[in-house]
Each structure stands twice: as C-alpha cells, then as structure tokens.
Specification:
The complex is a heterotrimer. Chain A is α/β, with parallel strands linked by helices. Helices cover 41% and strands 20% of the residues of chain A. In chain A, α13 packs across α14. By secondary structure, chain B is an all-alpha fold. Chain B has a domain of 212 residues. Helices cover 79% and strands 1% of the residues of chain B. The C terminus of chain B is likely disordered. Chain C has a single domain, classed as ABC transporter involved in vitamin B12 uptake, BtuC. Chain C has a two-stranded antiparallel ribbon. In chain C, a hairpin with a 2-residue loop joins β1 and β2. Chain C starts with 5 loop residues before the first helix and ends in a 14-residue tail after the last helix. Classes of the chains: A alpha/beta, B mainly alpha, C mainly alpha. At the B-C interface, α5, α10 and α12 of B face α3, α4, α9 and α11 of C.
Amino acid sequence: MDRRSFLKATGSSVVLAPAVFSSQANAQDATIQFAGSVPMTGAASETGLNVKFGYDCAVKFINEKMGGVDIGGKKHRVTLNLFDDASDPARATSLIQKQVDEGVNFFLGSFGSNIVLPTCAITEAAGRIMVQAGGGSDLIFTQGRRRVFGLFPRASRQFASTAAMFKTLNPQPQTVMFIYTNDAFSKVSAEGASKELEAAGYKVLNSIALPAQVSDVTDALGTVRAANPDILVCSTHDATSILIARQMVATNTNVKMLYQTLGPQTAAYVEALGKYANGVVGASYWDENAKYKGSIFGSAKDFAEYYRANFNRPLTYHMASGAGCIVAYVEAMKKVGNVTDRNAIRDALAGLDLETFYGRIKFTSQGDGDPVLLGPMVVQRQKGDLAVVYPTEAATAPTLYPALPWQDRT
Amino acid sequence: MTMRIFLLLGTLIVIVLLPQFLAPFHIRVVQLFFFTAALALAWNVMGGLAGYWSFGHTVFIGMGAFAAAHFVAKLGLPAGPLQMIAGIVFGALFCGIVAAIIAYPILRLRGIYFAIAMLGIGQVAAELANNVGWFQGDVGLFLETALPDGVEPERFFYYVFAGLFLFTWMVSLVVMRSRFGYGLLAIREDEDTAKMLGVPTEQIKAFGFTISAVLVGMLGATYAYSLGYFTASSVFRIDFSLNMIIYCLIGGIGTLAGPVVGAALMLLLTQIILGQLLELHLLATGLVVILIVLTLPNGVMGLVGGEAFRRRFSMRAGGKAR
Amino acid sequence: MRDPHFPDRQAMLIIQTALNGLVLGGVYSLAAVGFSLIFGALGIVNLTHGIFVICGAYAAMVLFHVFGIDPFLATVPVAIAFFFIGYAYQRGLIQVAISRASLVASLLVTFGVALIMRNLLQLVFSPDVRTITPSYSFSSLTFGSLRIDIVRLIAVLVSIVFLLLMALVLSKTAFGRRIRATAQQPLAANLSGVNVPHVLGQTFGLGAAFAAASGAVLGIVQPFSPSSEDFWTLNAFIVVVLGGVGSPSGALLGGILLGLISSFTAQFIGPSYTNAVMFLVLVIMLLIRPQGLLGSAFGESR
C-alpha cells in the first residue's frame, strides 16, 4: 500500500481529509493551489489578518474579475487553503507539514519571523516554494535557502531609505534615540538602523528596550525628555506605538520627529490619537498613490479601489504585500508557461524583475526583497491622510519637519 | 507477567513500524504526542504523585533548550549525533542541578503558593533569557540537527521523541513502584502525618522535583533541536505549563496512563479534528475542556478503568498512607 | 562635565518615578482586587479574570462610542452587569464543576471559558488593538518639572474610590459579613443560616464586577486587545501574592508595590527588565512571607 492510498483509507477517520483530496485532484486541471498559515488569533493576529485579506483579495480578483489567469494558453483559477496558526510556531509547523504531505507546491507566508523561519525550513526541505510578506529576519535569507522569497528586504536593511530621508531634512537633525520591542525582528531592525545612522554621521543617543507587553512608558519618556533627541525612532508593535504616542502627548514630550515603524499606517492609530497623529512618520512598503502598475490589478490605485469595494477591513500596506506575493507567483508562472514545474517556477521567481501594482518586484540572490526597489517608503500623517514623503520621486507631499509641538497640532 | 511482556513488545513494534504507514504530517502529530505526553508524565511525578502542582514547568523546557544550545556553542562541538546527545544530556543535567538547588526553598511552599512560585520562577527565567544579551533569547539561537543521511527530519525526531517518551514512561513506572514513589504519594495524602511517621519528606520531595526537572529539561533540549531555531518565547511558554496540567487532569491525574491518554486526546482534538476550524478552534478547544470536566470528573482513565483501575494505579499507596 | 543641577535633577527624577509608580500601582490594585476576593473567599484561581477585565474595557468602549457615556461613568453600569454575569457563571458552571469533580476542576473550567471568550472577543471585535479616547485623554498636570497625565490621575482616584467601596461593603454591611463568614468557615456559616451557595455566587459576582470596572478604567489608560487578557491575570497573581489574599487593602498595597517596582526598574535598570524584577520579587516574597504583606486570613501556605 503506498502512502497516498493509505492516507485515503485513513481519511475517513480523519475528518475533513477527503475534502482536501478532491481539491488536489482538481489541481491538475487548470487550478493553482496556494496554501499556508496566517495568525488569525493570538499575538500577531492583527497584522496576520491584514496579510490574509491581501491573499484573499488577490484570489478573488483573479478568479472573479479576470476569470482566471492565462498560463500556457489555458485559463487557470486560483485556490487558497489557509489555516490559523494562532501565532504559535509549533502549531504552524505541524499544519504546514500537513499541507506539504497533501502535495501543495506553492506556499504563502505567515506573519512573524518566529513562525516563518521554522515553516520555511519545512517547505524548503520538501522542495516546495514559499513567497512571504511576513518574515523579515535576516536568518530566513542567510542560511542558504533557495526556495524562500520575501517581498520585504531583510530586517537589517529595512532602514536604508529612512536614513536617506533624514539626510534631506532641513535643518539637519543631529541626534537620534531608539525605543524598540525586545524581539528578534524589532531588535535586529533597530540595531541595523542604529548602525546605518551612525555611519551617516548622526549621534545615536540611547536605545531603550521594551518588553512585548507594555502598560506604561512614562519612565522611558522621562529619559527621552532628559536626552531631548531631534528624532525618536520607535521600532515597536502597533499597540506599543499607540501607547508611546499617547503618553508623549499627555506628558508633553516633544521631539522634532517621531518615527514609528509600525502604527501610523493603521486605522486604530488614527482612532486612538486623532489630530495628534498628524506629523508622525512611519514606514510603508506600499502606497495607493504610488505610480506603479502591472498586468494584474492595474495600478496601485486600482488595487485600493477594488479592495475597498470588496472588503471591509481598513486597507494597510500589508494587504498589498499579501496580494503582491500571489502576483509574484502568477507572473513567474506566466513566464514558465505551466503551474507544475517547481524548479522552473523557482528560477522564474529568482529572476523576476517586473513592475506590478505593488512596485517593481525583484528579489536579491538570497531571496529577500531588493532593498532599494522594495524597501519602505517613508510616510507621514498629514491632515489626517497618509502622505508619502520619501523617496522624492514617489513623494506626494514634502516632509513636515520639525513637527509642531503636540498642543499646536490640528 | 508474560501477558505484559507481550503487550510491551507489541507496543514497541507498533511504535517502530508506525511511521511506515503514516504521512509526514501524521508522523509529526505522533511525534508531538510523544513530546507532550512525556512532558505530562514528567509533570505528573511531582504534580500527580506528590500533589505539588507546578504552574511553571516550562522553565525547565526553556532552561534545557538554552543550556543545550549554549553548551554546544561554547564548546564548539561539530554538528552530529554526538553533539546532539551532549547537548541534550547537558540540558537535562543543568535542569537537574538548578532544580536541586531551588528545591529546598521552593518546596517549603505548599498548594497554590508553590504553584505560583513556580510560575514566577518560569517568568523570571524567561524574562532574563529574553533580555540579558548573553543568552540571546531575543534574537534566537540555532541548533543544527544531526540528521543521518536519507532520513527525513520528521522520522528522525519521531524516533528520538518515541525513545524519550518510553524512557520517561519507564522512569515514571519505576518511581511509582518504588518505596520513593510511595513516599511521594504519602506526601500527597498527608504531608505532616507522613513526616511524623518518619517519611523523609524533604529529601523525597527534592528528589522527585529533580527527577521531574531532569526529564523536562531533556525533552526541552530535544524540542529545541527539533525546532532548529528558537527564541525565548518559543520555549518559555505559559501554555506549555498549563498543558502539562490539563493533559494530566483530563486523562486522570496521578496515574501512569492518564497523562498519556490526556495528551493523546487533546492533540487529536486540537491538531487533527479542530485544526480545520479556522477562527473557531480556540472556542472549540475550550468547550471540549469544559465538557470533559463536567462529564468525566476523574479524567478519562476514571471512566475507562472504573474504581478498580484507580485503586490499582493511584490509590494503592494512598490507601496505605491513610 | 558636572551638571550644576545634578543633585536636584536626580531627586526630581526619583520623585517623578515614584509618582509614576504610585499612579500605575493604583490602577493595578483595582485590576487585581476582584481576583483577590475570589481567590481568597472561594479558593478559585480564576483564569477568566483577565477576560473580565478586557470585557469591561470593550463594554466601556461600546458605551462610549454608541451612547457617548464617559468611560469613568461607565464603570458603574459595567460593574452592575458583570455582577450578574459573574453570579450566573459561578452558580451555573463553576459550582457545578466543583461539585462534580473538585476544587481544582475550577482551574480547568475557567481556563476553558477563557479560551472561548478570547475567541468570541476576537470574532466580535477583531483582534485589533483598541483604545478609548475621551477628550481629556491627552492633557496633563504639571507641578514644576513633574508631570502626570490626567487620565492616569483620574484612574487612580477612581480605583481608590472603588477599593474603599469594597472595603466598606466587606467590613460594614451584613452582606460583607456573610461573605467573610463563608470564606472563613462555610460549614459554620451554613449552620448560622447563611445561604452558602448564594453567597459564594455573590462573592464571585462582586469579584467579576470589580474586574470589569477596572477594565473600563484601563481602557482609557492604555490600548487593549483580546490577547492582552492573560497579562491581567498574571498581574493579578502578583498583586495578590505581594499584598495578601482577600482584602482590598492587601490589593492596594500589592498593586502600589508592583507599580513602584515596575516604574523604578523601568527608570533605573531598563523597561525590558520590569517583568523579570516583578516576578523575582514575587518569588522572594513567597519564600519569606507567603501569606503576603497584609494577608493572614485564608488558607494554608506551608
């Protein structure tokens, strides 16, 4: 008895397994099956859901709006089989293994490097491909994996464009201070940023590490007031970013620029801070006003419109990144002309250099996003909207610097 | 007696041959079962037999993992089976030493206070591992697996965990049959009376605690090897601590089979049956836990074996102490 | 090199840190007192505690957004609602589990309910981070170089009022006497004509009410999401062990100690070490005085 027929035999005892087999049978004729996990519950679920909505949006668009995608002269529909990893690496690994067993070839990523890393080790070992927009840790890309691609540049390189933006400011800032969450991703990106800024001639005053769950940052802000840096960079999760900003307002702690990697992009942030969100700077890997366009979705604007017409969850760049993963896959498959040759598709992904609604998608030789092309744009909340302020060619508004003191913001 | 030997042999053969018939996913689930069942058994030595409920046993998973990773890194041992064995043995020993040191002060506490103290110790260790730069718990540590050529990782770790599970089972069995095990039960039934009757309760508790810690440390180090890359948050996890308790309670606390049955049942539910329920699996798991408490107050083993079973496994010594 | 204002500035920093700690501690106290009461009187380790707190925050959020009710005022209806919810929960589920199995079964049941509720909250409110922002949430008071944000100050005052209220209820009213009697000697209380199951349910309800009210206060002070519930359960654990089980004054003392510990650690060692130090103090405290600073009432520890 071979493995597959045994599985089928046991399938009846293992609820729901038969359903998976039927979808796999279809995978041969004109469907492309994507699978993977996202955190829909647990600590990473807020952003995890954002990424999931991006995946959903791309699938819906390809199937309903385009009526499938033309690959090798045949229309292909797209199926998506996601499960909830509950932000738990152990759960994610065993369930990813299940999908590997079921013959899934093309994986989409979870959110959070601590989940992406062990899961991509499994898909890599099984010769399957993963394209993800949720794991930025350097380790994902520096251990010689050939079939793991990330739309984001690795963590230590994500600050390059922001450092360049600081150079354009007038008057030139002199001093920078960091607050970061003490986890793998935030710490590595803060350290990368700190090195980058010191090399660029800025004085890095102090770095404050925060625990993952914070209820009060009054004391850290006391240190900020005492050091009085020109720029405060927060490499923190969105809940912490909100807390920091709120308490900065409440304790009247002013800096010339507040930069928060995650937070200002989200709707929750604006809801929490109202007018005080104006002037806060953040990173965004995509903006709907950017001038990119591609064969799927059309322009960035078109994507945003389609998304808003079909989904209720407020749009952030994570949706675009999620959809971008599927777009990258499909574009690579179009080049290859079939959806079965894993090696050819892998090579096509590695060689991809193509403008899409998300930007020009191009991976480094190690699989992470090209730091210049796919690095973050710098955005700033201005009059309630998110304006792109850097790079200059994509900018929709000039940077407001120095920012007004909190009580003068409108 | 022959019956038992046949049973044991049969179990061994099933364990050895099982992966030939399973898909990798199911191998991984069974591997997870061996791991969690062994954890529950190890917890059961103190929690079930002596009645000392630890809410923080994950501290030994984490310490075992960190000790193993730093040990092999500091010694610069080349990756390979020997390195893995060295790491796991060191992880286990390290936990044993730490447990022996903290045993005396911490075991003076009883009941919920012991439980909370262990919770606290678990949190302190986790926070230190995460925040003291030297431990590298925030950025994560690597352990290279020594995979023999041509063996898939899930099969390899299946057999490793199966071995550790059997080892833990044997240790539990020996403990339960020994004078020392009766001592633990006597402590559970009435510590003060036991002490008065000349049972060296202090030593017995400390020894039981250390055994439990060594077993969990060994499992923790192996778990770290199976992950390959881990951070403090992947090995110091409150849900590990809670699951050990819950598996024991659901299966039947203080018995040998209970923790194993509890782990099997809960894994079957959470990984296989409820794994497909997207946003609802937490809810479903919660419901199952509540239903089990309400319908099977003595755990599954209480239902299966009835009164006779419970007497044989858990009450035999308990009756003596009364 | 030498800062002429150095000693002054150092003193001010210490005063500011102490002030921050006191303010934080007041809020922690309120969040823990319900847990303390339930643990002290019923012996139940209520793993649903954090859920009550977070539910209180969501309830206040809904009342604020839909009806425009100020979150501090919302504490009252929220507390009343959760009194009944807590009562029903104890009588309908926890007591059943305890009588069918044992006291420890309550641990499992509350764990199961916490899982369910966390899941439901995620479904209803999404896992996103929420905040409640009344108009005054960005103001602060300044005394010289000392600063406190007003929200936190009010939160502390409200917490203290609630704690006083509970202390009064427990010590002065017949209802409070019944609770204390039941906690100390359920059998004797029963013989004296106390309806013990009813009182146990009421006690649980009271604990739930305070937890939810504290959630309404916390919702203004800091962002919350369904997954922050376990943080509040753990916090309550620490406060109760530090201060002692079952009394409002113990919770107040424990909360303030916890607040001071975390703010001094954050200021002088580093914010990421606050949890480590908090739990270290917890363990040391257990070893030298397991009944807590003010505790003595219920249960044996050694």
